[in-house]
Amino acid sequence: MKACAVKKKILSKVKNHEVVVVAVVVVVVARVVVVIEVLVAVVVVVVVVVAAAAAAVVVVVVVVVVVVVVVVVVVVEKVVAVE
């Protein structure tokens, strides 16, 4: 009710209602842009976190492969040395 009264008061002072409409549209668009910027920031953070997790998985896989290769080489050397 109070907001409606304030709106009527503003409209009565402004002869050209289009100015108010444009101002409202600008404010709404600005808020939408802020929301979009926040969503983009969230997506960027998620992508970075997923990329970091993927990099960590790759590092773990490489370490496991290197350890397995080293173990196999040591076992083969011992088997060859025994023969």
TrEMBL record:
Q: Where are the transmembrane segments?
A: 20-47, 53-76
Q: Which domain of life is it from?
A: Eukaryota
Q: Which UniProt keywords are present, listed alphabetically? A: Membrane, Transmembrane, Transmembrane helix
Full protein name: ABC transmembrane type-1 domain-containing protein
Protein source organism: Elysia marginata
At the highest ranks, the source species' classification is:
Eukaryota, Metazoa, Spiralia, Lophotrochozoa, Mollusca
